[in-house]
C-alpha cells in the first residue's frame, strides 16, 4: 500500500456539506437534485464532500450521483469523501466496535467506493470518552487495511474535542488527523478561533473542518431551515430574533447576511491557516442557485489555481479572485454592525461543556 501524504497536504480549503441532502435540512431530498448540485459543484472546482450515516439519505444520494454517467469524467482519486460514524438518530448513538465496523462498510457500499478519505466519530458529546477512544482505535485498524485514509472526531464542545484528541494521542502514540466542529467560526460565535484552534494544535492536530458558517442556517434571510424532521435548530427565540434584525440591517445596506457571514467565516479560516495548520470551511449547497452563490462568494476570498481551491498566502488581508479592497472595508463595517445587533447573543453557545467522561445532553449557555 502506497504511503499517503499528511492530510494537511491534500485537504482543500472548501468542502461541500452533505447534510443538505438529508431529511434534517430539506423536505425533499432526491436523486435528481443531488446529482445536479454535485455536478455543478464539481464543475466549479469543489472536489470534497462531507456527509454522515446520520444524514439520511445523504450517503445513498451522493453515492448514486457520483456513480451516474454524468459524473464519469471524475475519477475517484480526484475527489475527497468524508463521512461519520456513531450517531444513529436524534436520540441514539452506537460506538461499539461492531457497529463502527458495520457503519464504515455500509458507508462504503452507500457511497459506492472502495475507500473513504476521512471518517469522523460523529457528535462525540453524546457518548462517553472511553467509547470514543475505543472507536478511534477501530477506525485506525481500518486505516491499516486501506478502508479509510484519515481519522477524525466531530462535535460541538471545543473543550471535549480537545481533551479526547489529547487522550487519543497518548493512547495510540499519534495525533488524530482532523477535528470537525460546527457553528463556532461565525459572525455570531467565533470561539473556535479565540480558543479552540490553539487547544487543537496543542493536541497535535493539524487540520480542522469548520462547518456551518451560517450557524446551520441561522445567519440568512430565510432563517433556520426546516426539513422533514421539523425544526431541530437549538437557537432560542431571542437569538433568532437578533438574527432576523441583523438580516434586515444587512439587507438595508444592499448586502445579504448569508454572503457576508460566509465571507467572514472563510476569511477567518484562511487567516488561521499556515503550512503547518489548516482550517477548511464546509459550505452548504442544496440547489444550483445556492451552489452558484456560495462559490461565487467564496471566490471573493479564496483563489483557484488550475481548478484547485487554494488558501491565500497573506491570509486575512489578501483578496480572492473577485474580491476588492472596498468590499473588505465594507464587510468589516457591516460585520461590526451585526455584532452590535447580536448584543448579548454574540458568542452565545448552543451547549454547555460536559464534565469529563460523562457525555450526555447539554444545557444551552452563554460563553
From TrEMBL:
One of its GO terms (biological process) is dehydro-D-arabinono-1,4-lactone biosynthetic process. GO terms for cellular component: cytosol. Residues 13-303 form the NADP-dependent oxidoreductase domain. It holds the Pfam family Aldo_ket_red. GO terms for molecular function: D-arabinose 1-dehydrogenase [NAD(P)+] activity. SUPFAM superfamilies: NAD(P)-linked oxidoreductase. InterPro entries: AKR (IPR020471), NAD(P)_OxRdtase_dom_sf (IPR036812), NADP_OxRdtase_dom (IPR023210). It comes from the Eukaryota. Keywords: Oxidoreductase. This is NADP-dependent oxidoreductase domain-containing protein.
